[in-house]
Amino acid sequence: MVDRSFADLSLAALYDSLNPWGPGDDFYLGLVMRAAAVLDVGCGTGRLLRRARAEGHRGRLLGLDPAAAMLVQARGHRPHDVEWVLGDLRTRLWSGEFDLALMTGHAFQVLLRDEELRVALRAVRSALAPGGRFVFETRNPAVRPWERWTPDRVREVPDGHGGVVRVRHEVRGPVGGERVTFTETYEVVGGGSPRVSVTTLRFLAPGVLAGFLAEAGLRVEGQYGDWDLGPVWAGSPEIITVAGVA
Fold first, then answer.
1. CA 210 → CA 4, 61, 205, 230, distances in Å?
2. Does residue 4 have a pLDDT over 80?
C-alpha cells in the first residue's frame, strides 16, 4: 500500500522497493503480452510496460500518470520506446486506439467522487477498440483492510543506496461510508526528517462497481477475489474486475 501520487522525486524512487513484483504484476503482464495496444492508467514508474517490452511485446504501450516524479523514473529506464504521458484521463481524448486499458496498484480507488469516476470510465470506454477490455483491482471493503493500517505496523525497506526507510500508516478519524483517509510516513533510518503524505481512497462493493461500469458502456465479464482468480466473497482481499465494451 502506497500513495500513487508521489510528487517527490526521492519518494518516487522508492516506489518499486516498497511494492516488489508479485502475483498481481504477473497477472497484468500476461494480459499486456496478449494485447496489441495497451493503455496503462496510473502507470507509476512504468515497471509493467517496461517489463512487457523487455519480454518481447512489439505493439503500442502507453503509460499515463499525473505525477511527474513517477514518469521521471519511467523515462530513466530502458527500453525507451514506451510512450509516457503526464496527466490523467482528461489530458487527451483517445478514440478506439487500445485493445486493453489497465489501472493497477489500486489506482482506481483514488477516483473519489461519482462524477470523477464517471468521467474516467467514459474516457476509458472511448479509448477502447471494439472487443477491448478494461481491467483493474480494488480492495474489498468487506475485509475492512484499513483496520490494519496502524502506526505500530512498521515496514522497513531498502532505499537503494545502502540505507533503510521505515514506513507506517495511520487512519485519520473514524471511518464512515466508502472513503478512508490515512497518512503514510516515510522515515530514513539514521537521518533526515520524516515525510508524510495524506491519501484518501474509495472502497466500492462489486455491485456498485458494476453499476458505474454499465453507465459508461462497459460490462463486467468477470470479478475475482484474489490473484489465483478465486471468487469474490466476504473474506477475499481483492475485487479484480475484467470489463468489456458493451
1. 24, 27, 9, 18
2. no
